[in-house]
Design brief:
The protein is an alpha/beta fold and about 575 residues long. The chain has helices spanning about 5-15, 20-25, 40-55, 65-75, 85-100, 105-120, 135-150, 170-200, 205-210, 220-230, 245-255, 275-280, 295-305, 325, 330-335, 380-385, 395-405, 420-430, 440-455, 460-475, 485-495, 505-515, 525-530, 545-560, and strands spanning about 30-35, 35-40, 80, 235-240, 265, 280, 290, 310-315, 340, 355, 365-370, 385-390, 500, 560-565. It has a five-stranded parallel sheet, sandwiched between helices. The protein has a three-stranded antiparallel sheet with strand order 2-1-3. Helix 6 crosses helix 8 (about 170-200) and helix 7 (about 135-150) runs antiparallel to helix 8 (about 170-200).
């Protein structure tokens, strides 16, 4: 196993860009030095191997022989050093930096601590030969109290044979006190480091807290949900009624937000024909007032503008009870133009509503969708501007639910991830399209583009850009995700949702798209579409999520004469 220096530097840069990686892997004994910064050596090799081969590395992969990874890194030109674990050096450096005008006192303190160490060890007060080996503050504070009292007794055990010739007995207690102060400062800095690490967004924290609240969603589904929000601040959740769409949305916003003022759930009415339920309207009878909507959306957006480091969420429940293009048109427009929504003409109004409403980058919209005879379909204009995630319930998930029924306690989630909110916003502003496996991804996307174009469902530059952003966010949150898994998620969330039409129109294209999802000589029509027990976990299935959806759409087109991505 070998890596070039360029590959290892690329791994280091990835660690710098995603500190959660460092938080998960720690080296207790050795550091790799690069540009005067330290890194866990095996973590650097692991990230480099993930970039090249998609697999993490651990010491066990080197037969638990630490010299093997060190040799690889040293041959690439990197320096490996043993971690300093000497409090004496740390204490000296700290003392001199805090007492620049009295550095000579340190030598007296040093001798005091040496004398104390010997006497305390001889009298079995400590089980270490050096006080510098002790970082138990409770023990040290007890020693300090004892030394302070014994200093009044010249015959005390540690004064009998060692009278300080360089000063007074007060140096003993003063030295211990200073050493305690140093350790407290050290611990405070460690606590800050831990807090900083905890502030980096870690999706595993959300998954764990979600499970502890009584809700169950599989890990990949949660990854799709969060990655979609990070890549585009407009997310549509569709699928089976009662499958947890609103619950997942509520769970996440309660978890990431400090207070409930950062989000609002708005049930969409069947009579919404314009923007007034969301954006209000100018009061014609009182020009000095602007009638805010009862939904609270205006105030939510204004708060988001005032607090750019906090995320704000609007959850539109049953979003398609009314035609989305009618009441939501302003939002759809500014998502691309980045301009403000005009609310009224003229002078300022008394209740603080601006004439133009900015939609900031820390404002996220999640829409839930049910499909039945009372709802409306989404147009390509809407679907183009969102990630669409379909909720299905598998046999395994239903079995798990029935055997593990728990009371759902959403209150247990409140504020648990609030410390990560700032980093969540920072991640959402990452527009990088630099993907390691870009060529393989481009080849598959072009295949789908050519076929979708035949039925007028091809994607444009915007969708292509958003697909690459989605894939980048998936890799950021989960370094172990494979190229095919990322492509599979992109297909089902960004390419298939616009697909709908008659049997005559759809079945040929679905057969072609299905064939892109398998390998190994599988006959897509005979082995998949016409089989009642095809295993979508078959090793020859390249894109299982997409293939399963294509299969359902194909069967729907054959049985009903028409099919679309959205299902009742």
């Amino acid at each position: 196993m070998t890596f070039t220096k360029e590959q290892l530097i690329e791994a280091i840069q990835k660690i710098d860009g995603n500190p959660v990686l460092r938080n998960k892997r720690y080296s207790s004994t050795y550091d790799l030095i690069y540009n005067n910064k330290t890194y866990p050596p095996i973590l650097v090799l692991s990230v480099a191997n993930q970039n090249e081969n998609g697999k993490e590395l651990f010491l066990s992969d080197f037969n638990n022989n630490i010299e093997v990874p060190f040799k690889i890194l040293k041959e690439a030109g990197f320096e490996i050093v043993k971690k300093e674990n000497d409090h004496q050096k740390g204490f000296e450096k700290w003392f001199k930096s805090h007492n620049k005008k009295d550095t000579g006192t340190y030598s007296s303190y040093l001798k005091s601590l040496e004398y104390l160490s010997e006497s305390l060890y001889e009298n079995k007060k400590i089980n270490k030969k050096s006080i510098y080996q002790i970082d138990d503050l409770t023990l040290l504070e007890n020693i300090y109290t004892e030394v302070l009292s014994l200093q009044r007794n010249p015959n005390a055990y540690f004064f009998r044979s060692r009278t300080p010739s360089y000063g007074t007995q007060g140096f003993y207690s003063a030295a211990v006190n200073k050493y305690i102060e140093y350790l407290k400062t050290l611990n405070m800095n460690k606590s800050k480091d831990i807090a900083i690490h905890r502030s980096f967004f870690d999706i595993t924290e959300f998954k764990n807290d979600l499970n502890n609240s009584g809700l169950f969603f599989n890990d990949k589904f949660v990854l799709r949900f969060v990655s979609s929000l990070l890549s585009k601040p407009f997310l549509i959740l569709t699928g089976l009624s009662g499958s947890g769409k609103t619950k997942l949305a509520q769970s996440f916003v309660q978890w990431i937000c400090e207070t409930d003022t950062q989000y609002t759930v708005v049930p969409v009415g069947a009579d919404w024909t314009n923007r007034e339920p969301l954006l209000g309207y100018p009061n014609a009878l009182k020009p000095e007032e602007y009638a805010k909507p009862d939904s609270g959306v205006i105030d939510l957006i204004l708060s988001a503008n005032s607090n750019p480091n906090l995320p704000y969420f609007l959850i539109l429940d049953e979003m398609n009870l009314s035609h989305v293009e009618r009441y939501f048109a302003d939002f759809l427009s500014v998502m691309e133009s980045k301009e403000a929504i005009p609310l009224y003409d003229g002078n300022k109004v008394e209740n603080g509503v601006p004439s133009k409403l900015e939609i900031p980058s820390n404002f996220f919209i999640i829409g839930t969708v049910n499909i039945d005879e009372t709802t409306n379909m989404f147009s390509p204009k809407v679907l183009d501007r969102a990630n669409t995630i379909e909720f299905r319930v598998s046999n395994e998930e239903m079995d798990y639910f029935l055997t593990n029924i728990n009371e759902i306690k959403l209150d247990n989630l409140k504020g648990k991830g609030a410390i990560m909110a700032k980093n969540f916003i920072d991640l959402s502003s990452n527009n990088s399209l630099n993907i390691k496996d870009g060529q393989e991804i481009n080849t598959v996307l072009l295949q789908f583009f050519i076929e979708l174009k035949k039925v007028g469902a091809e994607f444009g530059y915007r969708s292509a850009n958003e697909i690459l952003k989605l894939m980048n966010q998936l890799s950021t949150l989960n370094g172990n995700i494979t190229t095919n898994e990322k492509i599979d998620i992109a297909i089902i969330q960004k390419l298939l949702p616009k697909l709908h039409g008659s049997r005559r129109k759809l079945t040929p294209i679905l057969e072609r798209l299905g064939s892109f999802c398998v390998k190994g000589g599988i006959n897509i029509t005979k082995d998949v579409f016409e089989s009642s027990n095809f295993d979508f976990k078959n090793e020859n299935v390249v894109f299982p999520l997409s293939l399963e959806k294509i299969d359902r759409m194909y069967r729907g087109a054959v049985e009903n004469g028409f099919a679309s991505f959205a299902e009742a």
